[in-house]
Amino acid sequence: MNNPAPNLSDFGHDPLWLSIIKALFIFVFLMVGVLLGVWTERKLISRMQHRYGPNRAGKFGLLQSVADGLKMGLKEDLMPRTVDKVIYFLAPVIIAVPAFLAFSVVPFGPMVSIFGVRTPLQLTDLPVAVLLVLATASIGVYGIVLAGWGSRSPYAILGGLRSSAQVVSYEIAMGLSFVAVFLQAGTLSTSEIVAKQAGGGTWDILGMHIPTPSWYVFSLLPSFLIYAITMLGETNRVPFDLPEGEGELVGGFHTEYSSSLKFAMFMLAEYVNVFTVSAIAITLFLGGWHAPWPISIWDGANTGWWPMLWFFGKLVLAFCFFVWVRASLPRVRYDQLMAFGWKVLIPLNLAWILLAATFRALRLPEVDRGGILALGAVIVIGAFAIWLRFDTTNQRRRERKAAEVEEEFEQLREEPTAGGFPVPPLDLPHYHGVVPAARLHHEAKEVTSGSN
Amino acid sequence: MELYVPILVLAVLAAGFAVFSVGIAPFTGPKRWNRAKLDAYECGIEPTPQPVGGGRFPLKYMITAMLFIVFDIEIIFLYPWAVAFDRLGVFGLVEMVLFIVTVLVAYAYVWRRRGLDWD
């Protein structure tokens, strides 16, 4: 299978008009994608909850997002007196621009010919393309912090801080989950990572040639699973949508942005970010624009404009995954969220990276395999010993805490005012358990609603 | 540098759109003055006065930010190592094990001092 897969040397030759066309395409694609994405999400989640969802504006409610956008434009643009005006206006811009930028290194397809110019279906590629994606994600955090800070309202500031702490925490796990991919691919350029996932090798078992899967999702499954979790945390989606915990923080960092076009920017950025992390998942783990297995048997599947279709298909599926998760999972608690990011994802990730690196080193030519295995064994045993020590310490701490709670409980049971507060005894019988039958019949009189 | 020109084009496009939307927002809607409407929203109670130039925030967030910087720099060290792994060979593997163990010492210390616990 000969793949006209582009590599880094194919980039940087586009005339300016072609770059503008590509940039315009990405821009329009993302805008229309957000409109359709919002509609898809609402429709899909409605069906999952046995509702109809939007079905009034246009056929199947397809124009619902357009109607919502228009409505936002025609709403009064409130600006509370207390806000820091410059930051308040800048924050939506700061959050929206980098969201678009990350898409500039996403490969949509192989080399094609546009108006007679051979060019890859990708805006541009860099030797450090994935770093650009991480950088834009980090700049997006500035928008969140500044929106919360500039609003000068307690809810907004708390929401902004929470949201940024969450995003930076999950960014570490996200960055670590990429390392194994770079280890395998040997490059940070997105187009070359996609090219590396083209054709797998073959296993020769009993004279049969069994093609091995070439997507990194198979060979680096732990990395992919961790990435799938962090992309939910990174985009503030359910089950990690703490910043918009409406029960406690109203709207979080965008509480003060009423419902005007400024709020629309936040919403737009949120959905574009969902598309971005999905596109990165597809590029790094799911074979990029390469056709999935049954289609890839057809020789023409990975040439010309076809790969764009496979890419969009994967993007739609990835977006549906987000919606599915939203319909299925409850929101986690904030301390659980942070503990999961810092105490589970990071150590797991580091261990997996070292394991993957060891496997990689074993397959290098002319290496001392015995030495590597001995080193690996020492590390595994050492890690296990440390974990045991940690576990016993934690166990002891937990037991001590349980004993303390038990003691306090006993104390309160005997003496209700022990803690300094007039606490009712914990074992008071519930009143409905002791209502005498006589009182029930003679004195109880139902107070119907509305009578006063 | 040629590689970065298209990114600039997209940035101009996105920034133009965002600035246009934010800039036009005050002119497209109605304007009805109301004193309470211009207060910070706090579910109906009198808004808490916020100090000019930003208030204070829980120290917890600063610890998280510092830890983030430590680990982010660790990730940045891992990237070139991963890309050049095949050329470095076993030497690279041993070096990275030593590096990660060093960082893990700090990590275990923070964990032990309950820097990773939220409350």
UniProtKB/TrEMBL annotation, chain A:
The chain crosses the membrane at residues 16-39, 86-106, 126-149, 170-195, 215-233, 271-292, 304-325, 337-359, 371-390. It is found in: Cell membrane; Membrane. Its EC number is 7.1.1.-. It catalyses: a quinone + NADH + 5 H(+)(in) = a quinol + NAD(+) + 4 H(+)(out). Keywords: Cell membrane, Membrane, NAD, Quinone, Translocase, Transmembrane, Transmembrane helix, Ubiquinone. GO terms for molecular function: NADH dehydrogenase activity; oxidoreductase activity, acting on NAD(P)H, quinone or similar compound as acceptor; quinone binding. It is a multi-pass membrane protein. Belongs to the complex I subunit 1 family. PANTHER family: NADH DEHYDROGENASE SUBUNIT 1, NADH-UBIQUINONE OXIDOREDUCTASE CHAIN 1. NDH-1 shuttles electrons from NADH, via FMN and iron-sulfur (Fe-S) centers, to quinones in the respiratory chain. The immediate electron acceptor for the enzyme in this species is believed to be ubiquinone. Couples the redox reaction to proton translocation (for every two electrons transferred, four hydrogen ions are translocated across the cytoplasmic membrane), and thus conserves the redox energy in a proton gradient. This subunit may bind ubiquinone. NDH-1 is composed of 14 different subunits. Subunits NuoA, H, J, K, L, M, N constitute the membrane sector of the complex. This is NADH-quinone oxidoreductase subunit H.
Automatic annotation (TrEMBL), chain B:
This is NADH-quinone oxidoreductase subunit A. GO terms for molecular function: NADH dehydrogenase (quinone) (non-electrogenic) activity; NADH dehydrogenase (ubiquinone) activity; quinone binding. The chain crosses the membrane at residues 6-27, 61-82, 88-110. It comes from the Bacteria. GO terms for cellular component: NADH dehydrogenase complex; plasma membrane. Its EC number is 7.1.1.-. Belongs to the complex I subunit 3 family. HAMAP family: NDH1_NuoA. Its main location: membrane.
